[in-house]
Design a protein that fits this description.
Elements lengths: L2 E7 L16 E2 L2 E2 H11 L5 E6 L4 H10 L5 E6 L4 H11 L7 E4 L9 H11 L4 E7 L4 E4 L3 E5 L5 E10 H13 L7 H7 L5 E4 L10 H13 L1
Parallel strand pairs: 1-4, 1-6, 4-5, 7-11
Antiparallel strand pairs: 2-3, 6-10, 7-10, 8-9
Length: about 230
């Protein structure tokens, strides 16, 4: 059985003030995506890494691979307009077997711990579909300009990545969504719509996604503390 890490890296990151997509911004001389790739490079449970990216960044990714010794990076494929297409392109490029494990992780989540990754991968051997998520701690409301309702935070989670599935299950769920022209925000939604059970593994607030300038500033502070 082979375990593949798929890193969708085709996003532009419009909420970050930069001429480059956020995953290629340098922090302390290292691109953000390099921090993420090192997590999977260091894991004994990951066999191969595949990145889906815009073609104009292929050469930069090759340089990152060489500079930071990301030897598990086996393929860089063209990403799609949406995350869903990027993951699907990478998925097909794996040439995986039905029961192989696929780990999808955001390029801009550079603080995933080995402990959380390992726990999620161990659970994936018993349960076909895994998401990493954290329980909501703040009061949750729904609405737009005004509050319409309050949600029960005791049974509400904030979904993170990695998200893990068997190759055939994830491929079938993605192809089903494509046929229905359904665009999901992540893989777990596609699995849920395809009636698959998804087990939750507790994540961490440290495993946040860098989306805004404030997130980037926080990551810089954390890098300085380390």
């Amino acid at each position: 059985m082979t375990t593949y890490a798929i890193i969708p890296s085709g996003g532009i990151g419009k909420r970050i003030t930069s001429s480059l997509p956020k995953q290629y911004v340098k922090i302390k001389g290292k691109e953000l995506i390099a921090y993420t790739l090192e997590i999977f490079q260091k894991s004994d449970l990951i066999d191969k890494i595949i990145i889906a990216a815009q073609p104009q960044y292929f050469s930069l990714l090759e340089k990152i691979k060489e500079k930071f010794n990301i030897s598990k990076l086996s393929k860089i494929v063209e990403g799609g307009v949406e995350r869903q297409a990027s993951v699907y392109n990478a998925l097909l490029a794996t040439n995986a077997k039905d029961d192989d494990i696929i780990v999808v992780h955001d390029a801009a989540r550079p603080l995933l711990s080995q402990n959380i990754l390992n726990r999620a991968l161990i659970e994936a051997k018993s349960f076909d579909n895994i998401i990493v998520a954290i329980k909501a701690t703040d009061t949750l409301v729904s609405g737009d300009t005004f509050v319409q309702d309050y949600l029960n935070r005791n049974s509400t989670y904030l979904v993170q990545t990695p998200q893990i599935s068997r190759y055939r299950i994830l491929t079938d769920a993605m192809e089903s969504a494509n046929k229905m022209n359904f665009l999901g925000t992540d893989e777990s939604i596609l699995l849920y719509k395809a009636s698959h059970k998804i087990k939750i593994v507790e994540g961490s607030s440290k495993n946040f996604k860098i989306t805004t300038d404030e997130d980037l500033d926080l990551f810089k502070i954390i890098c300085d503390i380390k």
